[in-house]
């Protein structure tokens, strides 16, 4: 059995096309099985990734092509999640989103940090482990909500808004923890920290102002030119993703925010689903 698995692993490692084919077959199979037991397909996909990936069987190996495809998949998923979210609902439930996001980050962070310290780990190691355990995977949240057909429910803007808050807090803590590690545990480089936070604030300020006052004019112009609307929407998503990266946030945050402001008159719902 080990010999057969070794041969398959060698073939997939040397052939990117076979590697991708194996991955797609596994994804499709686990998705069908999860739907049969009324569970989100992503649950089976994540489990299969652990089992068939390098951690266990090693039948699938990450490579440059898979990295590009996975980044594109997450990018479009978050862009679609933004299209499915009403910005007015996001604003309406902003207090709940902030409360859920802050508590959802701080409680696991504090508990994990204290647990690591109790087990005798250093402060720096405890901070890194606590940070890793407190980060929310916004793309996974969006996928689960979509798979469960909850995109139109009230809970969706709260969860996605909380995930954005969680990511911003993670960046703030990550910057501080990195500085502590670089400085040998002697404190935070407040100049670097302030610059990072200013970039984050500038990104969200620009995004809100652009989405509220500038983009609607483009939307009205493009609504009569539907053939150009989809291309323009992708350009907007990539632009916001680029700006998010400049602010040291993940590109998917920019894609999600861009999707919030793209009106259905510019990109039809059916086209985005396809």
Map the helices and strands:
Blueprint: H1 2-14, H2 16-36, H3 41-52, H4 64-84, H5 87-92, H6 94-118, H7 123-134, H8 138-147, H9 155-182, H10 190-222, H11 226-246, H12 251-261, H13 269-273
Précis, in short:
The protein has about 270 residues and is mainly alpha-helical.
List the main descriptive attributes of the protein structure presented here.
single chain; 274 residues; mainly alpha; Na+/H+ antiporter like fold; 80% helix; globular
The oligomeric state is: single chain
Beta-strand fraction estimate: under 5%
Question: What do we call the CATH topology of the largest domain?
Answer: Na+/H+ antiporter like fold
Number of domains: 2
Which CATH C-level class of the largest domain is it?
A: Mainly Alpha
Query: Which ranges are low-confidence, i.e. pLDDT below 50, for 5 or more consecutive residues?
Result: none
Counting DSSP H or I runs of 4 or more residues, the number of helices is 13
Mean pLDDT: 77
Overall radius of gyration: 21 Å
Q: Which descriptor suits the 3D outline?
A: globular
Structural class: mainly alpha
Give the termini distance in whole angstroms. 41 Å
Name the helicity range.
over 70%
CATH architecture of the largest domain: Up-down Bundle
The secondary-structure element order is: HHHHHHHHHHHHH
Q: Please tally the β strands and state the result.
A: 0
Query: What composes the largest sheet?
Result: none
């Amino acid at each position: 059995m080990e010999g057969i698995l070794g041969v398959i692993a060698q073939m997939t490692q040397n052939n990117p096309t076979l590697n991708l084919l194996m991955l797609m077959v596994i994804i499709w199979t686990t998705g069908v099985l999860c739907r049969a037991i009324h569970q989100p397909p992503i649950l089976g996909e994540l489990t299969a990734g652990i089992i068939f990936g390098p951690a266990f069987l090693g039948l699938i190996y990450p490579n440059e092509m898979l990295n590009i495809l996975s980044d594109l998949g997450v990018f479009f998923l978050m862009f679609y999640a933004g299209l499915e979210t009403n910005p007015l609902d996001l604003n309406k439930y902003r207090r709940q989103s902030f409360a859920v996001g802050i508590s959802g980050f701080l409680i696991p962070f504090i508990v994990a940090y204290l647990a690591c310290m109790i087990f005798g780990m250093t402060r720096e190691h405890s901070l890194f482990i606590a940070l890793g355990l407190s980060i929310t995977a916004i793309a996974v949240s969006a996928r689960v909500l979509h798979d469960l057909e909850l995109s139109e429910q009230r809970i969706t803007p709260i969860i996605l808004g909380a995930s954005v808050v969680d990511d911003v807090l993670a960046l703030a803590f990550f910057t501080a923890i990195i500085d502590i590690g670089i400085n040998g545990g002697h404190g935070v480089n407040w100049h670097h920290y302030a610059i990072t936070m200013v970039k984050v604030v500038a990104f969200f300020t620009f995004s809100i102002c652009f989405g509220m006052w500038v983009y609607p004019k483009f939307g009205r112009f493009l609504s009569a030119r539907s053939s150009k609307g989809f291309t323009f929407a992708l350009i907007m998503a990539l632009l916001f993703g680029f700006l998010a990266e400049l602010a040291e946030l993940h590109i998917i945050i920019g894609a999600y925010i861009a999707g919030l402001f793209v009106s259905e008159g510019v990109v039809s719902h059916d086209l985005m689903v396809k």
